[in-house]
Amino acid sequence: MTDRNDVPAAGEDLLDDLRWRGLIHDSTDLDELRARLASGPITYYVGFDPTAASLHVGHLVQVLTARRLQLAGHHPLLLVGGATGQIGDPRESSERSLNPPEVVAGWVGKIRDQLSPFMSFTGDNAARMVNNLDWTGPTSVIDFLRDVGKHFPVSKMIARDVVKSRLESGISFTEFSYQLLQANDFHQLHERHGCALQFGGSDQWGNITAGVDFIRRRGGGPVHAFTTPLVTKADGTKFGKSEGGAVWLDGTMTSPYAFYQFWLNADDRDVNKYLRFFSFKSRDELLALEAATAERPFAREAQKALALELTTLVHGADEAQAAILASSALFGRGALDSLPEATLRAALSEAGLVQVKSLGTVASLLKEAGLVSSLNEARRAIGEGGAYVNNERVTDNEATVPEDALLHGRFLVLRRGKKSFAGVELLG
After folding, report:
1. Would you say 257 is a known binding-site residue?
2. 44 among the known binding-site residues?
3. pTM, whole model, 2 decimals?
4. 260 annotated binding-site participant
5. Torsions phi, psi of 241, nearest 5?
6. 14, 42, 280, 401: which has the fewest Cβ within 10 Å?
7. Which of helix, strand or coil describes residue 322?
8. H helices of 194-255, where?
9. What is the per-residue pLDDT across 127-177, written as a single tens digit (0 to 9) for each?
């Protein structure tokens, strides 16, 4: 991880920057936290439960906030919940399905590996990975109830919004007890590593403040906490979802090209917020991009900057450049044969990839790929000069495609007009 001069150094500047970016939703006393940060580096933690084989873009708010605090000189603890991942934080909708312990253990390793590139594990404020199974696993039920459960009034536990919403439909004792586990995590990290700050998403506020209160009841502290806002989309759809489902950080689950496109397609109403949340650009740079969005929305400068920065951060500079080249080439502004096979396949899969056993006429391929609704419409598009194969205009209604035109021996890029394209993959 490389340092950046435009990241606030400590204390007041750091908190002011987080607030300007909209990254503080709830908090304990901010004046006390400001004073604590001004006195020197603080040890902080943020937790990730392994409920899948990968983190998704919604987790980036926490990951990158952790990175901001480390760049400001503070000491990170990244907790991957081998214990809490077996339980599951209550959802408002329904009870979670419990995953087998061995599956959760495998996901712990994958998420630890995924978090590592975002942080520095060397130097005076090196990050450390921790797993709450290390202290939760050896604890007996009796010890947990006596040492932890005794400090939690049930009246406060059921006051948590998500618990209240589930009381009528039903909530198991397992999920009801989740906040005790998370509160104990803060206590354990406070005792073991001097951790004095926890942050997480705003839906975690009840769990986080339970930890603050638990430490106080055990005679520790003072400790601090804040939450970041949940990311929303202006059109009402869920952030982090694309047509193919969740947008994962794992490149085998969401390709770097699809990841790049997710940010490139951000709504103008959302992109400025996303830049403040996710970008490490300076305030002046962000304000300039906000002005560009207002003045020249068609240029999509903010979206391009955001997509490039985050794809580089998550997948590396080479994959980011490959995604940019693919975006240009697919719309006729670059050489298709220069694209790596994996990037080309990912881009065509995102647009719509049809598999065929033999190549027929261009008209039939246009229909099969869904770019036209009928052969007559396909022939009309060809006659009007609006049909392309591998960015070459087709003018013959009965034209066929020779196999030596296939990219990487397997793929064709079909385009109708300037913006509609799809892929064909020859099987066998």
Report:
1. no
2. no
3. 0.90
4. no
5. -110, 140
6. 280
7. helix
8. 205-217
9. 999 999 999 999 999 999 999 999 998 888 887 777 877 777 788 888 889
